[in-house]
Amino acid sequence: MIKWTRPNYMPCDPLGDNHSRITACDRHIQLSRKAASEGAVLLKNNNGLLPFANGTKIAVFGKGQIDYVKGGGGSGDVNVSYVRNIYQGLKLKKEQVEVFDPLSLYYQDYVEEQYKNGAELGKFDETTIPEDLLARAKDFTDTAVIIINRYSAEAFDRKSDGTDAYFNLSKTEKVMVDTVTANFANVVVLLNVGAMIDTSWFAYNDAISSAVMLWQGGMEGGLAAADILTGDANPYGRLVDTCAKSFDDYPSSEGFHESEDYVKYTEDIFVGYRYFETIPGKRDCVVYPFGYGLSYTTFALSDITAYCTGKNITISVTVTNTGNAVGKEVVQVYYGAPNGKLDKPAKELCGFAKTRELEPSDSQLIQITFAVNDMASFDDTGVVAKSCNVLEKGSYKIYIGTNVRNAKELDYTYDLEETIITEQLHSYGAPERLDKRMKADGTYEMIACKPVERATFPCTYKCAEKPEETYMLLDVAEGKIDLDTFIAQITDDELIELVHGQPNRGVASTNGMGNLARLGIPNVMTTDGPAGVRPTRKSLVKTTAFPVATCLAASWNLDLIEEIARVGALEVKENNMSIFLTPALNIHRSPLCGRNFEYYSEDPFISGKMAAATVRGIQSQNIVATPKHFACNNKETNRKNSDSIVSERAMREIYLKGFEICVKESKPRMIMTAYNIVNGVRASENIELVEGILRGEWGYDGMVTTDWQTLGDPVKELLAYNDIKMPYSYPEQVKEALENGTLTREVLCVCVKHILEMILWLE
Ligand code: BGC
Questions:
Q1: CA distance 683 to 667
Q2: Contact present, 52 and 187 (Cβ < 8 Å)
Q3: Terminal CA-to-CA distance of the chain, rounded, Å?
Q4: Does ligand 1 lie within 6 Å of residue 504's CB atom?
Q5: Rounded to whole angstroms, how far apart are CA atoms 121 and 106?
Q6: CB of 520 within 8 A of CB of 567?
Q7: Is any atom of ligand 1 closer than 6 Å to the C-beta of 195?
């Protein structure tokens, strides 16, 4: 194929065998189904109630069996040809489980009625259970399944007032749970949710035997749930967030609703398990710890050894399936850096591996390696060395286990007699309004707020001589002319056009980039992720909806994530688009963030690893991946104008860490900045984050895009080398800035160069 044939001609050219279409093909949908059980987490399974014995009769309660939420809403939604709900999934297993249909059909009528009256999927309350149906269900079976579902979407956060069905159960849900537990001997709970909800109501209730966190499992989530209940698949996931006893136990809860204009990240680096495992008295607030998950079998870890080869530490361990069913285990390695001048979390994840499917008695040797320097902390105040990553002297403990809580300290420690500076960095993005931050003993360090002088990054670009004849971009691809000389031919007006989004073509709905026919620059289309490709609804193209990112992360299976990203990229390509707006890797700072489903975890290490695997999978198909939203977009309320007020250390160690891992490991071709403000400067105008940290310190050489319709000033965004404003903008404002000297041609050339390098990389 000639370069850029797809963007230029939008051919009807399927990618499958014998010229068949691969978009939403059976193989992709089956992969989605598999991923849903690979990420599902078995939270409780008393007396081995699950999987159900063949022939078990069940009564299924909850409108969630019909009103199945495949994923969240907004740009993370996916247009599919069908979604299989849990009732339908169970009916496909009629050889294995017998469902009490009248009850499920009652819920079906209720849900249809709600939809007819304008209620939206997942957004209405539970109904009551008629007495006669309850009595008949009881006659039918002593085994009940309760389904609780939740929906959330971009642009709004969940609530926490204890009455609405968000974090807590609603009143009607509580009544349903009480009724079911009072009437059935065996009760299973299934959670069809995109983010953490209250789990204590079943964890501490002996009347509920089993619980599975299904997350939002994509278009075949209902069948995947049935796979798990019947034992056709095992819930192979492990938690990627801590389940706390109550919403108030999360350290971010206190200030979450304090203001719509700002959020103070006063818990600092003590986010998620770093808080619960470190702060005195907080261990008891945990229902299920980070990394936790049961299995239909049991495992033992043995022959654990650890050694250091100078730069790296390697742990090896043998994992044996000691139970009676096949299973996969996730081995997790944590370190505990010594408390010195800088406070340290008790444990921090630094490596993990998932076994292959192990038969009973089978074992596998696992090796996990991480860099010594990964244990360094960022010193933002200079108590050790200002703006440096430092390894303080002392003993670094290493823990291995299958969740953060059961991870056992090894005999081996990594000992340092002297403090070492591993990297001299800079003070970028510092807060002006953070007045306190948490210490490892749970008290606060008070901070004197003061104005910060921001760094400047003068433009060093030199415009090349304009060539005598006209060259096309293809000439650059073919090495006939260098890119700078090519750019010299572009007029100022054309440069201004290029730093703005371009009209949609084909089935795209989120606009294009490039589009200068005079010089052969194609208009390359973007499309959303993360759960699947999102062409415009009008096109009628249906794609594969995979489980949400949290479910994928909970699989702890990097090979699976890479494969899902690879097939997602094929769906992008087959539909003649080029840029996949995924992965999204903001941090689950609060269970209430409306977009948590699109993000991976409360932990930056697993987030970074998942994002890197995703980028590798996407870019292996010459489709551009776009890690987003850089950075600190951890709340949706007033997201375009809310200031995330955060220390430099928390930023480096928690909120930027995942991006750093992803950029360094997988070289994404594009990064999307966030809507929000970070310490007083909009993320999209934040030259210290973009040019200082991302490009300067991490060596990122791809392009940077704004999020869609930011409130940022288009000129300031360009001056921060945020190369393009999407999906369109105000070219007159940029032109005026060029004319009055606020903006130079050189800056525009740099931005356009980044865009063209991205386009040149495409097929
Ligand atoms: C979201 C992005 C998304 C973009 C394009 C924005 O509202 O924040 O994640 O990629 O829209 O749909």
A1: 21
A2: no
A3: 9
A4: no
A5: 17
A6: no
A7: no
Indicate the pLDDT class of residue 165, thresholds 50, 70 and 90.
low
Distance CA 743, CA 459 (A): 11
163, pLDDT greater than 70? no
8 A C-beta contact, residue 279 and residue 270: yes
Pocket test for ligand 1, best of 79, 504, 673, 707 (most atoms within 8 A of CB): 707
Q: Which amino acid is at 473?
A: L
Q: Decide whether any atom of ligand 1 lies within 6 Å of the 598 Cβ.
A: no
Identity at 33, one-letter amino acid code: R
Residue 390 phi, psi (nearest 5): -130, 145
Amino acid at 338: P
Cα angle 694, 481, 9; round to 5: 80
Atom 4 of ligand 1, nearest CA residue: 708
- Pocket residue to mutate for ligand 1, from 635, 708, 711, most atoms within 8 A of Cβ: 708
Q: SS3 helix, strand, coil % of the chain, rounded to 5?
A: 30, 20, 45
Cα(16) to centroid(ligand 1), Å:
29
Q: Which atom of ligand 1 is nearest to the CA of 626?
A: 10
Cβ neighbours, 10 Å, residue 206: 7
Dist. CA 69–CA 71, nearest whole Å: 6
Domain 503-729 fold: TIM Barrel (3.20.20)
* Class of domain 273-427 as given by CATH: mainly beta
What is the CA(448)–ligand 1 centre distance, in A?
A: 36
Cβ(511) to ligand 1 under 6 A?
no
| Residue in 79, 579, 581 to alter for ligand 1 test, most ligand atoms within 8 A of Cβ | 581
C-alpha to C-alpha distance for 256 and 103, rounded to whole angstroms: 40
Q: Is the CB of 581 under 6 A from ligand 1?
A: yes
Residue in the structure block whose two tokens are 């060093």: 460
- Residue 707 catalytic? yes
Tokens describing residue 620: 């292996």
Average pLDDT score over residue span 43-71: 98
Q: Quick check: 190 and 169 in contact, CB under 8 A?
A: no
In this structure, the residue with its CA closest to atom 3 of ligand 1 is 75
Q: Are 71 and 529 in contact (CB under 8 A)?
A: no
Distance CA 507, CA 515 (A): 16
Quick one: how far is CA 719 from the chain centroid?
Answer: 29
Span from the CA of 708 to the centroid of ligand 1 (angstroms): 6
Instruction: Answer yes or no: are the C-beta atoms of 630 and 557 closer than 8 Å.
Output: no
Q: Does the CB atom of residue 707 touch ligand 1 within 6 A?
A: yes
CATH number corresponding to 41-235: 3.40.50.1700
Chain Cα centroid distance, residue 720: 26
Does position 256 have pLDDT exceeding 90, yes or no? no
Instruction: Check if 534 has its Cβ closer than 6 Å to any atom of ligand 1.
Output: no
Nearest atom in ligand 1 to 581's CA: 10
Domain residue extents for the chain: 41-235, 273-427, 503-729
Please give the Cα distance from 329 to 318 (Å, whole number): 11
pTM above the 0.85 mark? Answer: yes
User: Measured from the CB, is residue 510 less than 6 Å from ligand 1?
Assistant: yes
- Residues shown for the chain: 763
For residue 747 and ligand 1, the question of a CB distance below 6 A is answered with no
Atom 12 of ligand 1: nearest residue by CA position: 75
pLDDT, the chain, mean = 97
Instruction: Write out pLDDT tens, residues 548-573.
Output: 999 999 999 999 999 999 999 999 99
How many A from CA of 421 to the centre of ligand 1? 39
Tell me how far apart the alpha carbons of residues 474 and 480 are, in angstroms, rounded to a whole number. 9
The active-site residue, picked from 67, 157, 707, 723, is 707
CA angle 61/41/543 to nearest 5° reads: 80
Mean predicted confidence (pLDDT) in 111-138: 96
